[in-house]
Amino acid sequence: xxxxxxxxxxxxxxxxxxxxxxxxxxxxxxxxxxxxxxxxxxxxxxxxxxxxxxxxxxxxxxxxxxxxxxxxxxxxxxxxxxxxxxxxxxxxxxxxxxxxxxxxxxxxxxxxxxxxxxxxxxxxxxxxxxxxxxxxxxxxxxxxxxxxxxxxxxxxxxxxxxxxxxxxxxxxxxxxxxxxxxxxxxxxxxxxxxxx
Length: 196
Ligand SMILES: CC(C)(COP(=O)(O)OP(=O)(O)OC[C@H]1O[C@@H](n2cnc3c(N)ncnc32)[C@H](O)[C@@H]1OP(=O)(O)O)[C@@H](O)C(=O)NCCC(=O)NCCS
Hints:
Blueprint: E1 2-14, E2 28-32, H1 38-49, H2 54-57, H3 64-76, E3 86-90, E4 98-103, E5 105-108, E6 112-115, E7 119-120, H4 129-143, E8 148-154, H5 158-166, E9 170-181, H6 183-186, E10 192-195
Parallel strand pairs: 6-8
Antiparallel strand pairs: 1-8, 1-9, 1-10, 2-3, 3-4, 4-7, 5-6
The structure holds coenzyme A.
């Protein structure tokens, strides 16, 4: 193991900017938060993140039990916003139901809404689900009277950075996140540097 430092950006969007409503593609639907589906969020998060760079940055994202702990921590935060916490599903009958995407929102000091983790399961990407999940959360932040939306993203996640820029987020800070990672994987990560 060695300690690797991953470059991350804090990005913020002004919630006063008006945006169009988020319309999901056909056959997909939003599922609002309720306590009984905490584990569905955890499992969907795991499937969305397990093979991605953020599972190196935050090893808990590459592990189902880690995702369960993370979801429980998010749920326990004082600013947890049920109205900004959504799943996207496809299909209705139990045999064909697929959980496709997850997002959570938390209210922070200064009327800031923090997007926790947006994740779309491979196989459902590139059809607008990530865009719709974020738009849905921005609407919930606005309805809660918040002024600013914020998130953190790994610099070496260009698809996510592009998505956020398209939705009005701008970089406000650069952060380095340390993570203990296996030696073999860090050499392939350009936006990271390692200290043995
Ligand atoms: C980042 C992530 C959430 C994006 O989700 P997504 O559902 O693929 O996002 P969208 O479909 O809204 O947008 C992705 C691309 O599809 C395009 N797209 C959206 N709707 C489309 C449509 N109907 N037809 C064709 N292309 C479409 C978008 O323009 C975008 O293109 P770009 O990559 O060239 O900018 C997803 O890749 C993911 O879960 N990644 C792993 C977890 C992760 O890194 N999350 C971010 C943590 S900060």
